[in-house]
UniProtKB/TrEMBL annotation:
Catalytic center residues: E106
Pfam annotation, one family: HHH_5
Disordered as annotated region, ranges: 414-468
Cross-referenced HAMAP family: DNApol_IV
Annotated site residue numbers, Substrate discrimination: Y16
Subunit details: Monomer.
Family: Belongs to the DNA polymerase type-Y family.
Organism: Streptomyces acidicola
Location of the protein in the cell: Cytoplasm
Protein's UniProt name: DNA polymerase IV
Superkingdom of origin: Bacteria
Coiled coil: none
Secretion signal span: none
Amino acid sequence: MRTAPTILHLDMDAFYASVEQASKPSLRGKAVIVGGLGPRGVVATASYEARVFGVHSAMPMAQARRLAPNAAYLVPRFEVYRAISEQVMGLLRALSPLVEPLSLDEAFVDLEAEGAAWDAESARLTGTKLRSDIRAVTGLTGSVGLAASKMLAKIASEEAKPDGLLLIEPGTERALLGPKSVRILPGVGPATGDHLRRAGITTVEEIVEAGEDELVRLVGKAHGHGLYAMALAHDDRSVVAERDTKSVSVEDTYDVDIHDRVRVRTEVQRLADRCVRRLRGARLSGRTIVLKVRRYDFSTLTRSETLRGPTDDPAVVRETAARLLEAVDTTGGVRLLGVGVSGLADYTQEDLFAQAAGETHLDDEDTLEEPAREAAAPAERRWPAGHDVCHTEFGHGWVQGSGLGRVTVRFETPDSAPGRVRTFRTDDPALQPADPLPLIPAGPEQSEVTAVGRKASPGSQGTVAAKE
Ligand code: TTP
Ligand code: MG
Ligand code: MG
């Protein structure tokens, strides 16, 4: 294990909810809950103000509504979270080539890789500067943990939350861990926690006291050794840049060229299913579906389509691959076919997104995986809570709620004062869905993008109309 606290762990504070508060001035300092609003929806996250009521991630939305009836309930805006995540990851990559993202809002960084830090003092300075850079670039807060191992760095950022930094000096790890609950150790969930408690072990210290043999006896060989090592603060895992897998794909080469178009289609479906099985096996999902075709003359084509969000749904991958195939001429015969998914995302996180989006028929338009829907949509317009809209007269705003043919919009922008609420008919032609606005007023290099974005929504009067 290294001797300097140069492994950094960053985790953004109440990430989705903070983004929503930064976007919507009227929600700052308020209880905000983001997640699926349909009957079986779950909470993705809650602002710290909402956590006071006991609301937390993965809780059924119905329960959250009972605990915090007056909170603002919003459907996630993934494209915004993803864009901000990219900004944050960019700041991390400027510190070191060794950045290991764990989810949209979280990553490990090895600060020693390129000399960003070498001892406690330089590590602290780097962590402090990172937090202020994140704030300047995104307008949001993230918490930083610094330690000599991944496990401790992550525990440190958790302890530092919200909006803090904690550095664990090498040599003090065991003193720090000792009195804490066993639940602080990675992999110790409620079940293991209960099991250990029944054996009289509630703190990390008590794990050490019980000894390795006793621990193996209690939780089995597989976990016992690891748990004991963690209790001693032994963790040698290194920071691994990126994921090993950037895409998941399968392909088949055929002994005899396939000429029959129907057979080609069937093969593509089969490959799509196999690809999804592999994707799911790796607990991943992805946004870009790739079809590869090698023809009789060895000419090889790849065609791809990027969906609006990550998927691991076999039906979606199959349909997309079939659509891609329609654009490929296979008349001379095919000797190889492949289907792949790239633009991979963390399944465990994105899966909850998928639920949040998929289960909310009425409120949620941000379906992750139906590019074809856009064409068919206009029949009945839907207004997901929290999503951006633009009104020809009142400018930019967001949907506060909808139902019974009415939609309520609050007109405000990230840099306006809290705005006013107005109600419209859901089919009011003056009201249109809009692109999200940047959280931080555009700097010189961004201004062009923003200008285009604003122009694209013709009636937008920006902040002027949103002010009371
Ligand atoms: P977390 O970092 O676990 O939580 P958080 O950023 O909301 O709050 P904290 O200050 O405690 O870090 O997750 C990051 C985002 O991932 C979160 O804002 C929403 C999403 N998410 C889910 O969709 N479902 C979940 O169960 C969890 C834990 C997170
Ligand atoms: Mg977080
Ligand atoms: Mg996180």
